[in-house]
From TrEMBL:
Cited PROSITE patterns: HTH_ARAC_FAMILY_2
Domain of life where this protein originates: Bacteria
Name of the molecule in the record: AraC family transcriptional regulator
UniProt-listed InterPro entries: Homeodomain-like_sf (IPR009057), HTH_AraC (IPR018060), Tscrpt_reg_AraC-type_HTH (IPR020449)
Coiled coil residues, start to end: none
Annotated PANTHER family: ARAC-FAMILY TRANSCRIPTIONAL REGULATOR, TRANSCRIPTIONAL REGULATORY PROTEIN
Alphabetically ordered keywords of this record: DNA-binding, Transcription, Transcription regulation
Recorded GO MF terms: DNA-binding transcription factor activity; sequence-specific DNA binding
Pfam families to which the protein is assigned, alphabetical: HTH_18
Domain HTH araC/xylS-type, chain residue ranges per copy: 192-297
Length: 298
């Protein structure tokens, strides 16, 4: 089989997985039934939820290599490109995968809040590690969806399938909440690194040369996706990364305002603001006073 493949439809993935197409917009596949292949590059044009079986090669997404063990749930969204690194021998895929086209949920209530399932834009190394009990629940959800796809399509089919898909995603949210708690030690290490990076950023010349600190900058430095970084910080601190950065920015500004030798404009530029008026608006929104008023009061 070719070294590169584009998965732009459910039927395309079914061909790859040696699986019949029961429903044009969604499918559940057992990858152990797929033909051995030498695919190295996968271009994803649909949504996919993969429950990994045994390891087959190292998966590379972006700059990182990830050994995904058994019981890891990984999410993919349209536009991603994956690379499988390893020897040139043919290999046999393993595990279960659910694939669905964006058209499946279009016009449904699920579509209106689908953006809340931020794990579809997580990096591969941010996959969901399931317990045996959690694996069974996910497999049951997969099985219920698969049963419905094999029924004759009627006016209830879409509603039932989408309802089961939403149930599956709700379980994923619950299990990610559990994972954020059980990996608290790892998470604290990430938060400490973020705090250190943020302090270093604000005490360097980066605000003047790069600009205001951004969520993307720190997510990249921590080798995390912006969404995973945001969800992690929200769970641990109750604040979004942007809120956290702005609070640190304001704290730094307060310290600088005690230096009477600097104008408000000079302080704004030192912090990375292009326009002092933007600094003044943010400061007043956070503190309740303008920078000049705060300086006078203190």
């Amino acid at each position: 089989m070719e070294q590169s493949i584009h998965f732009d439809s459910v039927s395309t993935y079914n061909v790859f997985g040696n699986h019949p197409t029961y429903h044009p917009l969604i499918s559940v596949l057992d990858l152990s039934k797929a033909k051995p292949n030498q695919i190295k590059h996968m271009h994803i044009g649909i949504y996919a939820i993969s429950l990994k079986g045994i390891k087959v090669g190292d998966l590379r997404y972006g700059k990182g290599y990830y050994d995904l063990g058994e019981g890891t749930l990984v999410f993919f969204s349209p536009g991603q490109v994956l690379h499988i690194e390893g020897d040139e021998e043919w290999h046999q895929p393993q595990g279960l995968i659910l694939v669905f086209h964006p058209d499946l949920i279009r016009g449904t209530t699920l579509a209106r809040h689908f953006h809340e399932y931020t794990f579809f834009s997580y990096k591969v190394n941010e996959g969901l590690h399931l317990s045996k009990e959690e694996q069974k629940i996910i497999k049951d959800c997969f099985a219920n969806i698969e049963k419905e796809t094999k029924r004759v399509i009627d006016k209830h089919s879409k509603r039932v399938i989408v309802a089961n898909l939403e149930l599956l995603l709700t379980y994923c949210v619950r299990f990610y909440d559990r994972q954020f708690i059980t990996r608290e030690t790892v998470n604290l290490g990430i938060l400490e690194r973020f705090e250190s990076l943020l302090n270093s950023y604000l005490t360097s010349d980066k605000p003047q040369t790069i600009g205001l600190p951004t969520v993307k900058y720190f997510a990249d430095e921590l080798n995390l996706s912006a969404n995973y970084f945001g969800d992690l910080l929200k769970k641990e601190t109750g604040k979004t990364p942007l809120e956290y950065i702005q609070l640190k920015l304001i704290d730094t500004a307060k310290e600088k305002l005690f230096d009477d030798g600097k104008t408000i404009s000079e302080i704004a530029y030192e912090l990375g603001f292009t326009y002092p008026s933007h600094f003044t608006r943010l400061f007043k929104a956070q503190v309740g006073y303008t920078p000049n008023e705060y300086r006078s009061l203190n």
